[in-house]
Each structure stands twice: as structure tokens, then as C-alpha cells.
Amino acid sequence: MIKTIRVMLEYNTYCLWLYNENDEIVDNDNPPEWQDDKELTDAFMAVSDLYDTFFVETESDFHYIGCPDHATAERLRQLITHAMLLLYRKNNGRYIIRDDIHFDPEEVTAQE
Which of 19, 30, 65, 75 has CB 3.0 to 4.6 Å from 34, enough for a Cys bridge? Predict the structure, then answer.
């Protein structure tokens, strides 16, 4: 049984991680009752897709390059805020939500 939804940014993964009452990972997806929730899925996919652009992955290299500019940082902040509001609204106290998104919008790597 799902007890906790952990929200975190990881390269090339969906942002929601489902944990059971023993704090074991059950799935990396929406809870079953929201499986077909396009609005929630699209909101968190938008976060994931933008966050993935902060990395370089080739056959011989993988590394974090960071957020390119302040406009992108602000866009990511807006996407995260929107997705989290949807999640809290849908959740309505059903699950524990653990917000582990650690993104500092001030950590912009490119010069503007």
C-alpha cells in the first residue's frame, strides 16, 4: 500500500516516487488512482523535460552542465510550483508528500 509520494528531480526520470509503509520504493509513477491523469502527468513531465536539459549525455560522457540562464531557472520554478499545486490539490491529505526538489534558481551556470 502506498503511503508516501516523494517528489525529486533525477535525470531522465519522472518526478514522483511512490513508497510503501516500510519506506520501500513501490514505483516511479503516479499513484494507481491517478494513472490516467493527463494534467498531473503533463505537469511533472514538463518539469522533468526541462531539468533534463541541464545535463549532457553522449556515448562517452555524462555530466551536469547546470541551468543555462535566469529565464530558464524561472521557468523551472514556475513549472515546479504548478505541478506541486496540482499534486497537493489532488492528494487532499491522502498520502504523505515529501518534497525533495533541490533546485536553487540562483545556481545559474551561463553568463547572461
Answer: 30
Please list the pLDDT of the chain residue by residue as tens digits (112 residues).
999 999 999 999 999 999 999 999 999 999 999 999 999 999 999 999 999 999 999 999 999 999 999 999 999 999 999 999 999 999 999 999 999 997 666 666 654 4
Contacting residues for 105 by C-beta, under 8 A, at least 6 apart: 67, 70, 73, 74, 76, 77
Here the cell at position 15 is: 518526478
β pairing state of 96-99 and 2-7: parallel
Q: pTM of the full predicted structure?
A: 0.89
Question: Which one-letter amino acid corresponds to residue 111?
Answer: Q
Give the amino acid at 68.
Answer: P
